[in-house]
């Protein structure tokens, strides 16, 4: 914009009219009708490509077995609206309890992970600190070599963590990738700022808390989101380390509910599904799993956009 | 190598449970990480036990005459019950509690949403048995990982249920080193203390011998092939279609049915029907794919019939009579809704779906009728069918368990193996009358509480001889049992039928991609010549050595097939 304003008027006046540079770049001109229509159509298609599958998921979750069978599977046009799949999911209080557990695990886990990751990343971002390179290499080695399932299980079991909620947090508490992204960002903060804080008498923790973290809000938001989504969607640790059904988080209960519709045939284990179709339950589970992410994402979107870019460049 | 994983039309693990039919699944691969499973057992971990050695281990068979089935077993079929349920007429097969009140923890795979650990069904069962059973119900879909980790640890529950399809990698070795020999409690006449266990068919016990000892409590199944071509009988009757008796008739019928513009196709992938049509050895489990012919062991994939079967299945795709969903192979959606809609009229799946599809549609679509087509030979003659395994889910007792715990576990199994028509069967499979189910016109219907609580837990410990009973649809039960009996007449047993064989782990991954190859050939993505090349590679990569290994097993032990 400034380039356009600064352009000398005499310069344009000397040239023939056809040669005149446009007063503004073309993308700053008001769009022509055709351009507007084209953009609208393109964006409309893009929205449709995203919304149409969601629409099908929601409509199928609200359809009866008859409608689903008539459609031969996924339903596009709603015929009868029934909440029987949601009723099935939410009856018995199991989902509610599991949701509370999942929220608690997500909150506590994310807080813990962020604390550990930020402290670690800050320490590693101060080059020249004791054992800095060695610690960094050790951390990175874990990205390439993992102990495997059974040794990890044996470790968790030996620590007495099986059948405790800690088993859902500790084994996946730290992501080296996230630490590296944070470290990259912290290293980009001007050292003068930190030096001046130090001259003013601030200690490392105070520098981290009052200088580095406020300047890193974007990347912190992204990493928080990464951890939170990770904890929210995790199910394998629970299926491996927990035996008590009452402790299962939401994702595991959802999987079980989907399987329930497919599982019990014959041997007196029949569920008279009647108007309830297994497909409707699967779709209802999808809707419920999508809901928290869909509700939260508008609030963190702006940080997310900025932070992603930062991570991409600095990581 | 398993019908389970084979195609969208193959049976699911759950339907296996339901039907008691065998859908064995020795999928190669699995858990390569189970390194810590070794034990101090010095007996051989590979091979099998049969012949004279097995006879010493096997429990005596004492038929259970408490209940007389409406259709007795014949040609390897299940027993069938078609009468309405008469609650007052239920028999008692366990007159006195055998449990001594001890605590037993059982880890078992579970498909669905497990009930709370303290619920009315578990309490009633424990009260009936006299044992305090604590369930560790684990997600059935990730059970193999859990199993590997638990067996590698020092903290193994008192009882662990292991389905055959999870016997991969090091798990068979762990079974041998971690679980108790039940021979002292069950071999020979010892089993007579537990009458319902004594009535379990000997074939199923034979399959429960692991590492030279009787370690498993089996869930018996019919050995008749379990994959049925299910078809829409209502539409067949309306349109006047005849059930085909040869591959040519099938093709002609398929072309007649198919009208892609009207969104109707004849069938889904028919690979698992093509195999029996051409007399190919069973693909349900690796050892069943070998058979002794003129003194030489031949694998199913080496026979010309195998390639002919694939070629015929390919022709169906090429002719455009297969529903487009089948192109997706394993990732195809559940065939239920499109079958109900009539987009295709024939698909192959587990016998149990005959009943489950019927019950799904009964309320909303009363004219819907699904029926099972007889398996046919390619030339219109009698088909040559190959038996599947007579048991494929086992419960094992921890080697460290005391005698009191083992006795309590056997008390549990003696109740869960009670035959249909007894109070114990009803309790195991339906729960408490009035709480978990109600009976109307002789048809038991589960209540909401029943649906939530009475799900696969106790039924996993041990089961009665294969049973088909559907009081709600007796004609389906009759149809299923009679189908098994007709097909059973053509069913032969291959050399390793009934044997529990642990292949050396170096062959675990051999032939892993066979199914993908088959699916590619059938769908026209690869040629028959590619398959021939694959088979040739398989032989050189270990197939021939595996043949020698199997031959030695057979020479040392003899065949269990009779």
UniProtKB/TrEMBL annotation, chain B:
SUPFAM superfamilies: Periplasmic binding protein-like II. The keyword Transport applies. It is found in: Cell envelope. Residues 1-35 form the signal peptide. This is Extracellular solute-binding protein. Keywords: Signal, Transport. Belongs to the bacterial solute-binding protein 1 family. InterPro entries: Bact_solute-bd_prot1 (IPR050490), SBP (IPR006059), TAT_signal (IPR006311). Its main location: other.
